[in-house]
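Comment thread on ticket #2218

A.B. wrote:
> Attaching the input chain for the structure job we discussed in standup.
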Amino acid sequence: MSRSSTLFAGLAACFALSLGLCVLLPQAQLGSLSPDFKEEDGRITEVYPTLTGGIAAAGREVYISQGCQACHSQVVRGAETTDMERGWGVRRTVARDYLFENPPVLGVRRIGPDLANVGAQGWRNEPADDTARPAKRDSTWHFLHLYHPTAIIKVSNMPAYKGLFQLRKITGAPSLDALALPAEMAPPEGFEVVPKAEAKSLVAYLLSLNRSHPLKEAGAVAVAAKKN
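C.D. wrote:
> Ran it. Output below, let me know if you need it in another format.
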């Protein structure tokens, strides 16, 4: 066999191997995945996952545009790690969790905590004992955390996203959306800070993140997330 034939054969083999490992094998493993269904009395009572829509879908775009994935992951690792002990989830995340994510916002760094289950009851931040204003992690909590992270976690190194909020003069009654800021962070008298549409969308997306649904391929729940 000539050298050119050997070269082309090698290139063809490399291409075939790459195609198999990068395309065909993942397709065989993941291509047939479908949502998990639960039935009672012949009726479907629960479907997981579901396609995120509405304001939460818009919030996903805000999450990406603000670069949140640069500091936060959305993948809980198995029981051999401390992810579940930290309260980031009650099981490891698996491929089915991202069935309708295009593309999945997995993230590659953890400067901040994992957010795969930030909308689930029991999710908590670290360090758990340095919370400046303990509160249920609802929309009010998230708005304040986005506007001034250290108002929630005193040692937080997360940047403030004040661009997602508006400082405006109060005319008539204060807005129901106005942030309840501590005195040292409050706006001048007669003004209020309210979230913009982007902040509302982002918080809706964060509250929608809940990958705690039991799945067979994820294995048993190893560690229960602690409530605040």
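A.B. wrote:
> Thanks. Noting for the ticket: The chain has one domain: 46-218.
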